[in-house]
Amino acid sequence: MKRYMAVWFRHLAADRLALRYPGLRQQPFVLVARERGRVVIRAVSREAGRLGILPGTVLADVRAVYPDLLFYEEDPSQEKLLASLAVWCDRFTPITGVDGPDGLILDISGCTHLWGGEETYFENIVTRLQSGGYHVRAAIADTMAAAWAVARYGSTHPVIAQGGQAAVMRYLPPEALRLEPAVVDRLRKLGLTQIGLFMDMPPAVLRRRFGLQVQECLGKVLGHLPELLVPVQPPVPYLERLPCFDPIRTAPGIELAIRQLLAMICQRLQQEEKGLRKARLVCYRTDGQQQQIAIGTNSPVRNQEHLFRLFELKIETIEPDLGIELFVLEAPVVEGLTTQQERLWDLDTCGKKEAVTKLLDRLENRLGAAAIHRYLPEEHHWPERSIRQTTDIQEAAAVAWPEYPMRPVSLLGAPVRIEVSVPIPDYPPILFIHKGNIHKVVKADGPERIEREWWIEKGLQRDYYQVEDEAGGRYWLFRSGHYGEHKPEWFIHGYFA
Questions:
Q1: CB-based contacts of 131: which residues, under 8 Å, 6+ apart?
Q2: Is the pTM of this model over 0.90?
Q3: 176-206 confidence digits (pLDDT tens)
Q4: Phi and psi for 125 in degrees, rounded to 5?
Q5: By CB count within 10 A, which of 73, 86, 115, 239 is most buried?
């Protein structure tokens, strides 16, 4: 007996935005798009829906009533989100399809007993989706059309007993049959506001009065007509296997296996115009144990020789013991990569870009990802806010680097308070104590005044000094506030090379 589960994401687009920006979760907001010269609401959050705001309404009309209503541009990539949710449902059933712009259909035949029955199965899926931030309604029935109708219009228990869809559908409105609006209007004008009022009419009467659509939709709901479910195909993992006739115990044999696996996986990456960002090699030994090594890259790569060199750095950590009988190479993280990408920071030739990328990959895999940092400028005067760290080599700076005086190579995330000795107010210190060590200042340059950003927070300005101690160490110090008004505090904020 076939059984289906329909899942309806009532506010899918709004839920997605709220997941990205958690501050919106309790806020009424809408998603809009331009349509025929007007800005029309395409989706609403649950809170906006409670205010009576409906999709299809003109934004200007709604804001006349709710002037503080938040609105954002519609994200057109909702289909990809539904497809990814369908793939996520593979843990519950191998057959899941996308149903319209906001729903999924699951073929749950023969699956529910693994969860202890349909009730537990239903609660498990709905609870996990709701805990993930989605507002959903769902239903289980013998047919896809009945499950769809009960999920959206039903008010009874959503798990319909086998053969019970006809009784439940009688009390639902004609919209639950997914009829065209013109047909629904004709039914309502005749007083047929529930499906049960025309469900038992002779087929010839239905066909003559309302056309074939009503009869076909009733047939799908009751199971008299078949309905096709097109399952979403999960992406094929980027994985290659290489079994060995004889166990491999030597480094040259391992190197040869890696080269063959890279050739296979890079061929597929080339066809799909992708490059890998992470790769993992798993070696299965004859004694049942596994050996693993992994690499990462700063940008998408499918150059076999470069990837081999990254693996080569770690081959010595593999212990083959009595021999390796199976090699498995997996690329869990891949990204788009055209035939020739022409941007890496501000380097002018592709050769330089590729050389720098390969150098960073070797450094990262030898020293670790924490050893490499890249920063981009931000539009702030306050030093700790003037930069931000990024892991994407391809990302371009939104603003140009400012023409500041010399800045320290290492800037502390937050200034550290120090004790100083100052001969005259507004002079640099003659010594300071940092981490229990006394540093005597032999050279100093400054001050450079940096005012606090009053539109963000209130507080004192800073006067920065570049100082050098007897040992040749160079530091960036600042005084917070003026002498005379109160006793100012001194801080260290960075180290020069």
A1: none
A2: no
A3: 999 999 999 999 999 999 999 999 898 888 8
A4: -65, -50
A5: 86
